[in-house]
Predict the structure of NAD-dependent epimerase/dehydratase domain-containing protein.
Amino acid sequence: MDFQDNEPEAVVTQRLIDGTLGILKTCLRSNTVKKVVYTSSITAVYFNKIKNVEIMDESYWSDVDYIRSEVKSYVSSYAITKTSTEKAVLEFAEQHGLDLVSIIPPMVLGPFICPKMHGPVRTALSPILGSRKNNNLLLNLAMVHMDDLARAFIFLLEHPEAKGRYNCSSDTVTAPKIVEILSTNHPEFPIVDTLEGIEGAKLPGLSSKKLLDLGFRFKYGVEDMYDGAIKSCKEKGLL
């Protein structure tokens, strides 16, 4: 993920599209791949001209032209790349009769194995870390536990009726709720930032009705996500 815009957006986007379609072509040639689950992103849903929407389902798409002209964010190029690639993937699958589903995760939180505190964890723990970078996301944050996301991948891969796009978000949480969870469940870490006065647009929630209607059930809530993330941070000496 090139959040630093080290290369032109068009170059990164075309490279990702070409690479992803190359994998799908290999799947077709193999004659052994029965189904593909593609990983999209919430950034392929959120960024468009539509206003005053409380929750977005799979019919919503980010608008690439809108992102280029209106979205001034570190995530702009990434959103364009993920949106363009998902559309190309779905079009390719339809044209070639490839059984493919696209899963759309929001912020993923929970236990982690990487040695450092990655971006989502740092943002989610900003009330105890004191970092205000990107914490406008916490105004209204769609989330899913890492293990639930992994289960959803397997579920969609194995379900014969799974088609198209699927949002995978179990909860939407606000900044005050995040502060409450941290102060109640993890009092050993003082709240250094109450998140009051955060400025920015309140992002919509992400509807997972389509996934739930297919029979999937989430096992973990927001408190589980924070417990898992903090446990991993402690084990790695990051907190």
